[in-house]
TrEMBL record, chain A:
It holds the Pfam family BPD_transp_2. The chain crosses the membrane at residues 6-22, 52-74, 86-106, 126-150, 179-205, 211-241, 253-270. It comes from Bradyrhizobium huanghuaihaiense. This is Amino acid/amide ABC transporter membrane protein 1 (HAAT family). It is found in: Cell membrane. Its main location: membrane.
UniProtKB/TrEMBL annotation, chain B:
Involved in beta-(1-->2)glucan export. Transmembrane domains (TMD) form a pore in the inner membrane and the ATP-binding domain (NBD) is responsible for energy generation. The keyword Nucleotide-binding applies. This is Amino acid/amide ABC transporter ATP-binding protein 1 (HAAT family). CDD domains: ABC_Mj1267_LivG_branched (cd03219). InterPro entries: AAA+_ATPase, ABC_AA/LPS_Transport, ABC_transporter-like_ATP-bd, BCA_ABC_TP_C, P-loop_NTPase. PANTHER family: AMINO ACID ABC TRANSPORTER ATP-BINDING PROTEIN, CONSERVED COMPONENT OF ABC TRANSPORTER FOR NATURAL AMINO ACIDS-RELATED. PROSITE patterns: ABC_TRANSPORTER_2 (PS50893). Residues 5-237 form the ABC transporter domain. SMART domains: AAA (SM00382). Keywords: ATP-binding, Nucleotide-binding, Transport. It comes from Bradyrhizobium huanghuaihaiense. Signal peptide: none annotated. The keyword Transport applies. One of its GO terms (molecular function) is ATP binding.
Automatic annotation (TrEMBL), chain C:
It is a multi-pass membrane protein. The chain crosses the membrane at residues 12-30, 50-72, 84-108, 114-133, 166-184, 215-239, 251-276, 296-317. This is Amino acid/amide ABC transporter membrane protein 2 (HAAT family). Keywords: Cell membrane, Membrane, Transmembrane, Transmembrane helix. It holds the Pfam family BPD_transp_2. GO terms for molecular function: branched-chain amino acid transmembrane transporter activity. CDD domains: TM_PBP1_LivM_like. It comes from Bradyrhizobium huanghuaihaiense. The keyword Cell membrane applies. GO terms for cellular component: plasma membrane. It is found in: Cell membrane. Its main location: membrane.
Amino acid sequence: MGLLYGLIAVGLALIFGLMDVVNFAHGEFLMLAMYVTFFLFTFFAIDPLLSAPLAAAALFVLGAAVYLVIVRFAMRAKANVGMVQIFATFGLAIVMRGLAQLFFTADYRSVPNSWLGGKTVSVAGIFLPQPQLFGALVAIAAFGGLYLFINRTDFGRALEATREDPGAVALVGIDKNRVFALGWGLGGALVGLAGAIMATFFYIYPDVGASFALIAYVTVALGGFGSVFGAFAGGIVVGLVEATTALILPPSLKSVGIYAVYLLVVFIRPRGLFGSM
Amino acid sequence: MTALLETRGVWQRFGGLIANSDVSISVGRGEIVGLIGPNGAGKSTLFNLIAGVLPPTQGSIIFDGEDVTNLPAAARCQRGIGRTFQVVKSFETMTVIDNVIVGALVRNTVMREARRKAHEVLEFTGLAARADVLASDLVPAEKRRLEVARALATEPKLLLLDEVLTGLTPTEAQTGVALVRKVRETGVTVLMVEHVMEIVMPLVDRAIVLDLGKVLAEGKPSDVVRDPNVIKAYLGDRHAVGA
Amino acid sequence: MDKQFVERRRRDLITAAGLAAVAAIVPLFVKDVYVQNIMVLTLMYAALSQSWNILSGYCGQISLGHALYFGLGAYTTALLFTKFGVLPWFGMIAGGLISAAIAMALGYPCFRLGGHYFAIATIVIAEIGLLLIQNWDWAGAALGIDIPVRGDSWLKFQFTRSKLPYFYFALVLACVAWFVTWWLEDSKWGYWWRAVKDNPQAAESLGVVVFNSKMGAAAVSAFLVAVGGSFYAQFVSYIDPGSVMGFQFSLLMALPAVLGGIGTLWGPMLGAVILIPITELTRSYIGGSGRGVDLIVYGALIVLIALARPEGLVGLFSRRRKEATR
């Protein structure tokens, strides 16, 4: 579960690190990815495993579009840039939830009988649910891919450079907007992957994003905003903490452990575990 | 008479980097003292130590007979140390007069008094006409002036000026020099950091030259500029850069 | 030289008194209970947003967890009344004081955090509070508390026949919150807060103890919000954790100020007067039939205003005023 949290959070971390914007509609991105997976399964009988790349592609387009249509303008605001970003993306989140209710209705849905759903594997005597296990593998693969992508490709380097000094980048002829749009697309694609996997073992409903969004913010902040590796580590920490608190506290209190750990970490290290001080 | 400000064997290390080593200087009451030196000489660090942005790694800072080494910046301001910032830090969303009122509140708890004091300072610094303008709408030279006004409103005994004359046009710099003289006439002691020697030398009573974190020379401006060490470290450095 | 300033302050005060007077006679003509209900909520959110604005707008510490104080006010009042028979008026003050104390206790570690870390910490803390109350059996856990209503009584601050007493109390609350802001704006605290928001390091160099300033703002803000929470508990006479402490309350408190103009005297009022009726109307007229259309309209509106008027709607007025004087 921790690795999945990491996967959800890493897209957020990427966008934040790139341009200092927290996407408050991140949970809704996740929700949409789950619906995409659901509909591909129901109408075209495409298993989530196969539709994951499609969900990622869809969310890539959405992420880039959101940047071009909304965030680009939010960043131009002359006053209260921080607030404008928060409320522009938050407004978007509300719109997306509304749209989901309108078109997909508020019913709880699930993807039954997928290749992975409900099956367990036994590893050294411990039974692990297959979807989660597979999710963990995808997450690790995605992190690996992302790492190579950022460090080995021209675009990855452009991304890094833009984040360090947008002004200088403009001088060498890189279109800032294109880089940012692609960054948002990439962030979307990552959460798209996460959504496809989540759809196999979690109920899908318009508000589903909200339950994961806060955990995603905590995960990102825990690792240190903008640090991709931090999000990965933060995800693992959150997963472990959740599992541990589930043993001690009643299930309804399980998030308390995660939140408490977040507070503890930032009180000691105000910039997260791996943020620069 | 005791000095107004004294640093005793002050050290500041950042990790492995030594920014100030064993710096002992003193500033007498009513003086204008220039703190000069090439880039990276540790002027700004020493300046921040005196203003209380951070405590020194070692050594002590005595102000007006009191050990202020471990006092935070706000407490030092209350005791009479006013400062400006090298990179101007105006309160951008507030008007010029409101910027200055923040400073005036240190010694005037009644709003009407603080407001009157702020107007007085604006008059003194020649910003009165711009009182109701937003700080963000000022031109750079005016922002520098606002920094000085804000610090003066705290009624300091010692005014720390961090490169207030750098980057101004010659005319603007001349008005700046006149302002510093006027400030001193009101009985305020001035310690100013400057990078460009030509501007400060005619203005200051005494110059302290820092190089590589140490005090290199100290004395009358006319003597200091002739000191071979200073010429080597400071001017030599500059010539080297120029060439 | 000061004449303009004094005049502007006086004009603000007179305008506010005039508006309050007009608001006070409106219910004499508007008898519709549904509309009255919206007016009560509008005034309440105006007061809440005005209070939120003190910490987040003036002092610049964006809190997205003020629902905690709202809930604390509501729960303190309701618990004291149902368990110990303490009158809501005392509960209101107790709730305010408890909230202010908790705000300061939480501020102690939180105010060292910057930007997003602070905002997320506030969300997380409110969320912990919500979960704790949900699991606290004595306080009704997830089921909440039903406040027994036995007829009209000013003493117990409950009214069944008419919404008017609630309306007038909410009006007073909004006026108080406005007046406190007006008064603080031209006090040393007001100047300190704005200085801290704009540039903490410069503020510190001018003798402002940044930490204390934030603490002061947090305490005032939390106190007023808690009083609002107490009022809400009496108004709806039934509270449960989700309905008084949920994240949506934190946002509903922030939105009017953001829309109207964050860190301004009139922003929260203006924002609430526009936003709350729209929220309620879309909810009841479109929400029932259209399934989510209310959310779409509402969300789109937030996006549009945020993008088109980053400095808030108050900017429209002040610009015109500036041009008029020119």
